[in-house]
Amino acid sequence: SLDGKLKPKQQWDRYLALKREPKIRVAVRCKEDESDEWLEVGRVKTQDSQYTELAVARQRAIIAEHAKRLYPLQISNKKTLE
Question: What is the pLDDT confidence band of residue 3, given thresholds at 50, 70 and 90?
Answer without folding.
Answer: low
